[in-house]
Write a structure and sequence with these properties.
It contains one helix and eleven strands. It has a single domain, classed as Acid Proteases (Cathepsin D, subunit A, domain 1, Beta Barrel). Helix content is 3%, strand content 50%.
Length: 155
């Protein structure tokens, strides 16, 4: 009779095979017709967040909101109206340390050639430099080079 063997570990993907992104990248949300949204990769945050305007409920399972592409912050010409299904509601600690309940939706994002579905909390980030934050759960399988920007997307 053979002694039981240790469970074999799954082979890890070699680091050199993983896409490398910069600490800032331009992100597309193609299903929402939003392109070139500047996002910050934040490995210290678990979830991702998107700055939205006019967040309102549309029945029990959907929300309506506006996403604005405003590179100069005062330009609201590039406003995209979005209707999305609510994935969940959860308590989140914001950057100022306060807890708040936020709505989470799912969205398909694209950074260069990398495309995936992620969960986004909808938040008021108007005081933040970057209107979108990519947290650890959305960065899974990617490497972040904290010394560089726009490695997969164009500035």
């Amino acid at each position: 009779m053979q002694a039981p063997t240790a469970k074999a570990k799954r082979p890890r993907t070699a680091l050199r095979e993983r896409p490398v992104i910069g600490w800032v990248e331009n992100v597309d949300l193609p299903e929402w017709r939003v392109f070139g949204l500047r996002a910050k990769a934040d490995t210290g945050a678990r979830s991702s967040a998107l700055h939205v305007y006019n967040l309102r409920e549309d029945g029990p399972r959907h929300v309506l909101f506006d996403v604005v592409i405003d590179a100069d912050r005062g330009n609201h010409r590039h406003r995209h109206d979005v209707r999305a299904r609510i994935a969940r509601r959860a308590r989140v600690r914001s950057s100022n340390g306060q807890y708040e309940v936020r709505v989470f939706v799912k969205a398909r994002i694209r950074i260069g050639e990398v495309e995936r579905e992620i969960e986004l909390s909808l938040a008021d980030r108007r005081e933040m430099t970057h209107r979108m934050l990519l947290g650890r759960t959305s960065l899974k399988g990617l490497l972040v080079d904290a010394s560089r920007r726009y490695l997969l997307s164009e500035e």
